[in-house]
Design brief:
The protein has helices at 12-24, 47-52, 65-70, 133-145, 156-167, 188-200, 249-253, 292-306, 377-385; strands at residues 3-8, 29-35, 41-42, 61-63, 74-77, 83-87, 92-95, 100-102, 105-108, 112-114, 127-129, 148-152, 171-175, 204-206, 211-216, 222-227, 232-234, 237-240, 244-246, 262-264, 275-277, 282-284, 321-322, 330-334, 343-349, 354-361, 364-371. The longest helix has 15 residues, at 292-306. The chain is an alpha/beta fold. The strands form eight sheets. A five-stranded parallel beta sheet has the order 5-2-1-9-21. A five-stranded parallel beta sheet has the order 11-18-12-13-14, with helices on one face. The protein has a five-stranded antiparallel beta sheet with strand order 23-24-27-26-25.
């Protein structure tokens, strides 16, 4: 008799866990998947490329519907198939339309949801986030019929959205609350190079700005964004990209222990031993997640335990940042700011648009920022993760692995 595994969430983290599980133990479970979007599993990271016109929606599908059929997975996909509640006492989940599934093991992979600015007008038509295929299709529709877009947030997602909309012919202004773009990933010098390069592509920036309210017309459609300094920007489309938060409402309502996310241990198990969770909905040792590399690592560990091999432990490693904008080379990992006990080595060639900064502490690399030439990024990341003593190669370190 096969055990029953139910998965809530048909995104990248949940389905990577199932792929790992199928390769480790193909016949152990009868698998049922619930997803709120009416598709198979697709690569959310590549939405920027769809917006920019480098890829189509078909190109970014990882597992089409046929894959579920081939692997005997029952897929319930679409808005009405989203799970409405988990009944832990009866070990079953119930979807909005009443579809139920019983489980021996439950995997929650509900991802994250976009944070909306807490200002008047945040519910106007034309105010959207950048999370899924529906959002991208909306942006593409607007770019055909409207002219002015404002993107709130100068992080990775905001810049990718701005670049895509500019390529589609819209006039785009990026509004950022900090004076430095990608302030969590870059220092001032690298951020300035990035801003200059994006300005050359026609994107306008309004830095150190605080949004006050969004203004709509009689049809409740956005027409402008107003700021605390009294200025305003006219816009037909307003993209909010100020971050995400774990989507843990279901788990909370089911009485699972949550803090900033669903709290899991090193085996990705929640406080209920029959319930596991992976991806952007979880909190592990105080950390939450927004990039794909740790999600895939979690999937591996979780599948290891679901398949009863039970030896893997999840460890959070520093994750590298790359910007998905064609023609811009950018890489950042670890602590690129440092402290009183650390030292920095920098290399700068403004004419070529190249800048590199390495942060060392006790003869170990603890952070790196590369702009314009990122060929050695993965090597620096390896040195950092392995805590390699770089004393012997210190004077050549900035010139990369070849030297």
């Amino acid at each position: 008799m096969k055990q029953r595994l139910v998965v809530i969430g048909n995104g990248m983290a949940g389905m990577r866990t199932i792929e790992e599980l199928l390769s480790a133990s193909p016949d152990q479970y009868e698998i049922t998947v619930f997803g709120a979007e009416p598709y198979g599993n697709y690569n959310r990271i590549m939405l920027s490329a769809v917006l920019a016109g480098d890829k189509t929606v078909e190109d970014i599908v990882i597992n089409p519907r046929q894959w579920y059929v081939d692997n005997k997975i029952k897929l319930h996909a679409g808005e009405k198939k989203a799970v409405a509640r988990i009944e832990r006492g009866y070990k079953k989940v119930i979807a909005i339309d009443g579809t139920t599934a019983s489980y021996d093991r439950l995997l929650i992979a509900t991802g994250s949801k976009a944070i909306l600015p807490k200002v008047e007008g945040n519910n106007l038509e034309g105010v959207i986030s950048f999370r899924d295929i529906v959002d991208v299709n909306k942006m593409l529709d607007y770019s055909r019929t409207h002219k002015k877009a404002v993107v709130l947030g100068g992080g990775l997602l905001g810049l990718e959205a701005a670049n895509g909309l500019a390529l589609r012919g819209m006039e785009v202004t990026v509004v950022h609350s900090n004076e430095i773009l990608l302030n969590r990933q870059l220092d001032k010098t690298a951020a300035k190079l990035l801003q200059t390069e994006l300005e050359q592509r026609g994107i306008v920036f309004k830095m150190s700005a605080k949004l006050q309210r969004l203004i709509g017309n009689g049809d409740k459609h956005i027409i402008a964004a107003q700021f605390e300094d009294g200025s305003a920007l006219a816009c037909d489309l307003f993209i909010t990209a100020i971050g995400v938060e774990p989507n843990m409402a279901l788990a909370k309502e089911a009485g699972l222990y949550c803090e900033r996310g669903i709290v899991v241990n090193d085996t990705l198990q929640s406080y209920d031993p029959s319930i596991y969770a992976v991806g952007e909905c979880i909190q592990h040792r105080g950390a939450t997640f927004g990039l794909v590399a740790p999600l895939f690592e979690q999937a591996k560990v979780c599948a290891n335990h679901l398949s009863a091999h039970g030896v893997a432990e999840y460890i959070t490693l520093p994750t590298a940042t790359k910007l998905k904008v064609t023609g811009i080379q950018l890489f950042s990992v670890g602590d690129f700011v440092g402290d009183a006990e650390s030292e920095s080595i920098t290399f700068s060639d403004p004419a070529l648009g190249i800048y590199k900064k390495l942060v060392l502490k006790a003869n170990q690399l603890i952070g790196a920022v590369l702009y314009g030439d990122t060929a050695d990024g993965s090597w620096y990341q390896e040195l950092l993760e392995k805590k390699t003593n770089v004393f012997e190669i210190r004077n050549k370190l900035i010139f990369g692995k070849v030297y």
